[in-house]
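Rotation project, supervised by the postdoc (A.L.). Task for the rotation student: set up a whole-complex structure prediction and record inputs and outputs verbatim in this book. Inputs entered:
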Amino acid sequence: MNSTVTTAEETNVWGGGNQPLGASYGKLMMWFFLVSDALTFSGFLAAYGFSRFKFIETWPIADEVFTHVPFFHGNYPMIYVAFMTFILIMSSVTMVLAVDAGHKMKKNAVIWYMFATIIGGAIFVGSQAWEWGTFIKGDHGALETKGGRILQFVKADSGERAALRDFAVTIPGERVAHERKNGIWFFDEGELPTYSLNEVIEGFKADPNILIRTELINEEGEKTLLDRKASLAKLADATMVVEGANLIRNEYGSRLFADFFFFITGFHGFHVFSGVVINIIIFFNVILGTYERRGHYEMVEKIGLYWHFVDLVWVFVFTFFYLV
Amino acid sequence: MAHGHKLEIFRGLVKFKSNTQKIWGVLAFLTLITAVEVVLGIIKPVSLTDTYFLGMKLINWIFIILTLVKAYYIAWDFMHLRDEKASLRRAIVWTPIFLIIYLVFILLVEADYIYNVYKDGFVSWNF
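Outputs recorded:
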């Protein structure tokens, strides 16, 4: 507000103790860190935008991927993520209230608001863990073609997504996963999918109600549905069964989609996690009266800045990963 | 912060009596915006998804603008940039904004070019 330097201070400008920006060293360094961290996150999100624009016609539609709510069956796109967003904003509010109470030196109010903030952060991290679990486990399953593209299945009569378990047949005598205890000890293979490629193909041929959906997005903004004849022809390109997601392939579509999901929400979740840890440390410091003795609650304000920043980043992740 | 809080938001349209009240007011506003975003995201009105503005769907412009509005209020009221000196505020805000616009512009233009190479060039990748 008032940036005029009086003459008396002018003689002492280099003598130390000046705060030209009106903020303490600790607060400035926190802002320094937050600006650089903001650039890291923008790097991630810009890279996501790059990959998405590169595959603009085939990128997965987030509404169709994140449709689950814990304890409820059915199709609820966006609802759970909106809930997570609200939780994080809410814990931001209790954090500001803690900072505000700190300015008024109300120790007990700071304790309770910090406690509420920690609970909010824990709920958010837990929700994210659940979301990761659901994403990794997958729901419907899909086939991968020679070119690494994903083929998904749809029921022709209802237009709903069909899961592999809905139509795949069981063929006896299929091979089982090789384990170390059988044969060469240093040779091991990852999990076999629930159904082999052959079982899916035979099941598909036997059930005329199933159609193939490709990654390509049509003019209505929906994934292209092939008719029965084209579906059968496309089936010849399939090379393997994909269930759920890992860092190499995922059943939702473009391989990069899952990678960015893991990296961006993972990096953000790690920030929330460390925020909760730092909040807990400061929470105990408040209880022990450290800041009461110090005469000010600036430490609460500094962790508050970090906590709001995490909320700020989530607002962008929410938009660019789930909405747009 | 020793120099007190500024209690008006919306350019002085709404003025709160205390800082605590302002916090709850901002929360209500942010919740409202999030609700609008989610409802738009679920309904996806055809009038917004079919209209393009500068090469992007109108609905996506709305999402991005609402996000920036939310970011503004989080930074200004929760991170109390509103109460900081203008010099500090500008240093914090404009540095990343400039760098991010620069990065996003370069990456998206380049990505669009690669998309065209995949589409029109002699590259077969969707098989």
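Student's summary: Helices of chain B lie at 19-43, 46-49, 58-78, 86-120.
Supervisor addendum: Chain B touches chain A through 54 residues (CB under 8 Å).
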